[in-house]
Design a protein that fits this description.
The protein is mostly helical and 434 residues long. It is 83% helix and 3% strand. It has ten helices and two strands; from the N terminus they run ααααβααααααβ. The C terminus is likely disordered.
Length: 434
């Protein structure tokens, strides 16, 4: 029994030992880990800077590689752009050089056609006139150049300059004519109203011929009609004097043309004066009616002449703008020559100047056609001439706008228009051989 108890106790102790052993072992493992962890952390801390430095170095290398690739691409693109730019500049310079050489060849070919006395005129030709003359035969070219003369001009050039004192006196005279015209318009209306009243009284007489009252009414009606007609004559004369004054005051109309137009107006004034005398001495209705009929015919002629002369003044003003534009063109051409020596790309500017030249050439042609049409006594032709002048005016305005753009373009490219007077070619007046 005792042995059995002892054996059970031994077995119990063994079982307890087996159960307790893992706990003891586990406790000893945790203790070991607890002891090893601070060491691992310390070791990791020691290695952290090395890892961080390695990571930073790797990132820097990667960044440098990316930057190198980007820079290589940028340099490649820059080289391509510069190459293209150089190529475009070379082509632009070549185009400009060819254009200059072509213009020079045209002038040289034209010089070979004409006499030595005309060589100065050849040099003074602008693009438009050079194009106009280059295609002519030698005889035609000489004849055309003979109609031109060379003048030195600035941007205020006038074909027929008038002194300031004369301008002021003419201005005052013109204002006086305007006042006279206003006064005459009022008195003419009064005379017309008076004539209408006389006609109403005359209708009341009917066919009565013996009545003293009716005789007086008829006489009075004739006098009222004379007064109205004479006032109409005065208004016509004042109108013609105003037109004459405007023509004589034009600084853009050639002297010969001024003289021709003034002579035509003087002829009309003389014709009107003769009619005025006939009206003044008329004593009967029949005599007055005949004189008034002549006046009506003269008025038609005056209206036609006034229209033609007014359009002629406008045409002269447009020609003046063309001449001043030629001066600007010469100054800009001079600037372009200097810029070409510096290898500046001016091809875009040349294109605009070529367009300018084309518009000026077309405008000149229209103005010349209009001049012939306005010299006609046909109302239809005069109307056609007016249309041509309007078209020419629009072309010149557009051409002038192009010149302003060219001026800005040249300044934008670092150039400056040349200063001083320029030689231009203008139409020769009869009797002058300058």
């Amino acid at each position: 029994m005792a042995k059995g108890v002892e054996l059970s106790l031994i077995l119990f102790i063994a079982v307890i030992g087996l159960a307790v052993a893992p706990a003891v072992l586990a406790e000893s493992g945790d203790a070991a880990q607890a002891r090893e962890k601070p060491q691992a952390i310390a070791a990791a801390k020691e290695r952290a800077p090395e890892k961080q430095a390695a990571a930073q170095e790797k990132a820097q290398v990667k960044k440098e590689n990316v930057q190198t690739r980007v820079q290589d691409k940028i340099e490649t693109l820059k080289a391509a752009v510069e190459g293209k730019k150089d190529s475009m500049q070379e082509k632009a310079q070549e185009r400009r050089k060819n254009a200059r050489e072509a213009a020079q060849e045209k002038r040289e070919a034209l010089r070979a056609k004409v006499a030595d006395s005309d060589l100065g005129k050849v040099e003074a030709l602008d693009r438009a006139r050079l194009k106009e003359v280059e295609g002519l035969t030698p005889e035609e070219a000489k004849a055309r150049l003979a109609k031109l003369r060379v003048v030195k001009a600035d941007e205020n050039f006038k074909i027929r300059p008038i002194a300031d004192a004369a301008k002021e006196a003419r201005k005052k005279a013109f204002e006086k004519l305007k006042e006279d015209e206003k006064t005459l318009k009022g008195t003419y209306k009064e005379r017309l109203d008076s004539l209408k009243e006389a006609k109403e009284r005359l209708r009341s007489c009917g066919n009565e011929t013996q009545s003293d009252d009716c005789t007086k009414i008829r006489t009075d009606a004739v006098e009222k009609a004379k007064e109205a007609a004479l006032k109409a004559v005065d208004r016509i004369v004042t109108h013609l004097q105003k037109l004459k004054d405007r023509i004589e005051g034009s600084e853009n109309m050639p002297e010969e043309e001024v003289a021709e137009k003034v002579a035509r107006i003087d002829a009309l004034l003389s014709e009107i004066e003769v009619i005025k005398q006939k009206i003044s001495v008329a004593t009967t209705k029949e005599e007055l009616n005949a004189a008034v009929k002549e006046l009506k015919d003269a008025v038609k002629e005056v209206k036609r002449a006034s229209e033609a002369h007014s359009q002629g003044l406008l045409r002269a003003e447009i020609n003046g703008v063309i001449h001043r534009s030629e001066v600007i063109e010469k100054k800009l051409d001079c600037a372009l020559d200097g810029m070409e020596d510096n290898s500046t790309d001016t091809s875009a500017v040349d294109d605009k100047l070529a367009e300018f030249s084309s518009k000026i050439s077309a405008a000149r042609e229209k103005l010349e056609q209009a001049k012939e049409l306005l010299a006609s006594e046909d109302d239809t032709k005069i109307a056609e001439g007016k249309n041509l002048i309007r078209e020419a005016r629009d072309m010149v305005q557009e051409a002038h706008r192009l010149l302003e753009e060219v001026r800005k373009d040249i300044r934008g490219l670092g150039g400056q228009p040349c200063h001083g007077e320029q030689e231009i070619a203008v139409e020769q007046e009869e009797g002058k051989n300058k």
